[in-house]
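I am still getting used to backbone structure tokens and would like to learn alongside you. Would you supply a protein for us yourself, any chain you care to pick? Start from the sequence, derive the backbone structure tokens from it, and show both lines together. Go ahead whenever you are ready, and we will take it from there.
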Amino acid sequence: MNDFTIRSLSRQESRVVLSLAERETREVSRETIIDILRVTPQAADHVIRALRRKGWLERGSWGRYLLIPAEQGPEATGENNVLALASLIADPHYIGYGTAAAHYGYTTQRRNTIWFVTPRRLRDRKLLNTEVRMVNIARRKFFGFEQVDVLGHDVTMSDHEKTAIDCVDRPELCGGIGEAAYIFGRASWKVDWDRLSNHLLLMNSIALTRKVGWIADHVGAPLPDYLRTNLHARTGQRSTKATLGAKKPNPHALGYQREWKLTVNVPMQDLAESKGTARRHTATRAP
């Protein structure tokens, strides 16, 4: 931290910044700042407001803040830390769907929305000009996440396998069915198939199993034979209706796919870019 940075802060503001730097932590609560300064909550709030105004702190949620690293200087906007900021909103949670797919490099679509998955009921909000959309899911679907490093911050994000499954389950949260299939294809050479199978079993949905099986074939995923047999067994013998796409019939759709007992109500042109994605991806992988 240079002299200019020190002089840009008051004594109390410097005390907070230096203390957090010494602790090598970037996430800080209001209570911690009160403890560092040993002042009243009102006095601490005054320091917090000043640090936010000068660009040293960004608020993730009420009472929880992210310290902008000293090496970025007092003018840092913190835009590269928006995922870390979102992680401060509430627990439990994970960052998923299109946001996770973009982080893993499975989609080239630009994202101006963060999909924040939580069993809690929270309102959407905005962080650093980025929309944070809340996805409230059932407890049985709330699994399959891990800590990933995002610019030096630990961010809770769906793992590769759950990201691929979630996007098929809720394609509207990743750019549509065509994009969900493309993401699945790109993910196919990185996922652990046994883990993906276990995740799919926990999702407890015959319809979703059929969709994943068909998309795996569509993108040319290297699905192990034993797993294919296992997934087929899970699709059941019942004629339960399962549809990929809108419920309203589309005259240009691919129609019923007998192997996976699935009606693909999507035109081939919408799925053309994702067809064979897994094979194309492996052909371009570095040795």
Summary: Residues 217 and 223 are 8 Å apart (CA to CA).
